[in-house]
Amino acid sequence: MRNHTRVGVVLATSLLAAAGLAAPASAAPRNAGPSCTQLSNGTLCVGIIDGGHTVNLVYGKTGGSPVTVKFGYRKGHTKHISNAYTVKKGDTKTYKFKKQNLGCSTIYGLLSVAGQGNFETPGLHNTGC
User: Fold this and answer.
1) CA pair distance 70, 72, nearest whole angstrom
2) What is the helix, strand, coil percentage profile of the chain, to 5?
3) 125: which strand partners?
4) CB 98 within 8 A of CB 52
5) Distance between CA atoms of residues 100 and 55, nearest Å
6) How many Å apart are CA 114 and CA 118, to the nearest integer?
7) Which sign, positive or negative, has the C-alpha torsion 93, 59, 74, 108?
8) 76-127 tens-digit pLDDT
9) Closest Cα to residue 47, out of 129, 113, 123, 117?
């Protein structure tokens, strides 16, 4: 296996594990996701865990200079945003929005990167309602 392919597989596996979504469906009922988007220097994933009450975001940075990011999610026209964090190449950062009232909605994971803009995952429907 080529080295860069192996890195991608390891990153994807670690993102799923960090998102809490790698367990078998029978062990984690009513979780949803992940929904991921590939960025130029990493991957952003969102999952809904804890029976549909926690939005879990995971960003794995695979290249480039250190960046300052804010995690977030969007439900309809409402956005929830975290404090700022610095992420460097090789880091996998997780942020959880706990005890959320998501209802039967679709949410979108957000990553705001200082000086570069905002990025969003594809929508993820809450199955925990």
Assistant:
1) 7
2) 15, 50, 35
3) 106
4) no
5) 7
6) 9
7) negative
8) 999 999 999 999 999 999 999 999 999 889 999 999 999 999 999 999 999 8
9) 123
The string of DSSP codes covering 47-59 is EEETTTTEEEEEE
| Chain centre to alpha carbon of residue 33 | 9
Show Cβ contacts of residue 90 under 8 Å, excluding neighbours closer than 6 positions: 61, 62
Geometric angle at alpha carbon 95, from 91 and 96, rounded to 5°: 155
pLDDT at position 70: 98
Neighbours of 106 (CB within 10 A): 15
Tens digits of per-residue pLDDT, 1-49?
A: 444 433 444 444 455 555 555 544 445 457 888 999 999 999 999 999 9
Distances (CA, A) of 109 to 5, 27, 39, 74, 129: 25, 24, 13, 7, 19
Q: Quote the CA–CA distance of 30 and 28 in Å, as a whole number.
A: 7
Strand pairing category for 92-97 and 124-125? unpaired
